[in-house]
Write a structure and sequence with these properties.
Elements: E1 3-5, H1 11-22, E2 27-28, E3 41-42, E4 44-45, H2 51-65, H3 68-74, E5 76-79, E6 83-88, E7 92-96, E8 101-104, E9 107-110, E10 113-118, E11 125-127, E12 130-134, E13 137-141, E14 148-152, E15 157-159, E16 162-176, H4 181-201, H5 206-222
Antiparallel strand pairs: 1-14, 2-4, 3-7, 4-6, 5-16, 6-16, 7-15, 8-9, 10-14, 10-16, 11-16, 12-13, 12-15
Helix pairs in contact: 1-2, 4-5
Length: 225
């Protein structure tokens, strides 16, 4: 399931994050790649324990906390501390699948859901599309600054080569309460339908109450702590 999260960060938050990252010491992005994916990866990253990563990461986490779309789609149990990367002209990341387990903030996290938050407006660079092989086919993603995309970490994906400008983004992984992407998709569709019907019919309508009960019963069965 690929889901766009519009406006995860406000324009002011994007500007603040970019200003923080400008003062960072960027390093080779291979530091967070596995042995195989490192061979296909050419980009730059902000060291994950740096002051800049922590300050900009706090902005991203604040956006996640207030986003009903992210929380409904990812059903987060644990979120890996946000990281930040940069692709300049000639840089790319070839086809790869994210590592199944990540270690961060003193904990081991199963990577069920991958997220990219765009920090550069699409007109600032050419190329740099995030290309994801989804159950509905291959999808090319290049969203507005502040928007995010979430997708299963099991998906084969790549970042196309930058031919002009620079593409800055945050990326991180989420361990979901529900491991299965198919089940998360069903729950997300149900949640979306509940919100739509509640606006049309009211929260106390029998159909809304019944669908809400069904959602929570499925969630109880499928949650894995």
């Amino acid at each position: 399931m690929l889901v766009r999260v519009p406006g995860l960060l406000t324009p002011d938050e994007v500007a603040r994050a970019v200003a923080i990252l400008r003062s960072a010491d960027w390093v080779d992005g291979k530091v967070t790649a596995g042995a195989q994916s490192a061979q296909a990866k050419t980009n730059l990253q902000v060291p994950e324990n740096s002051r800049q990563a922590k300050e900009a990461g706090a902005l991203v986490l604040r956006g996640l906390g207030r986003s009903p779309v992210f929380n409904a789609a990812a059903l987060p149990l644990r979120v890996f501390p946000p990281l930040f990367n940069r692709y300049d002209a000639g840089m790319r990341f070839g086809d790869h699948v994210d590592n199944a387990i990540r270690f961060g903030a003193g904990a081991r996290i199963r990577t069920d859901v991958s997220t990219t938050v765009f920090l550069s407006p699409p007109e600032d660079y050419d190329g740099g599309e995030l290309v994801i092989q989804d159950t509905y086919g291959t999808q090319s993603v290049k969203f507005e600054a502040g928007d995010a995309v979430i997708y299963p970490s099991t998906s084969l994906h790549r970042v196309n080569e930058i031919t002009r400008g620079s593409r800055w983004a945050s990326f991180f992984w989420t361990q979901s309460l529900v491991r299965s992407d198919e089940r998360r998709r069903l729950l997300f569709d149900m949640d979306t339908a509940i919100q739509r019907l509640a606006m049309e019919l009211g929260q106390t309508h029998d159909g809304v109450v019944s669908l809400t009960a069904g959602y929570h019963n499925l969630l109880r069965m499928w949650v894995e702590m």
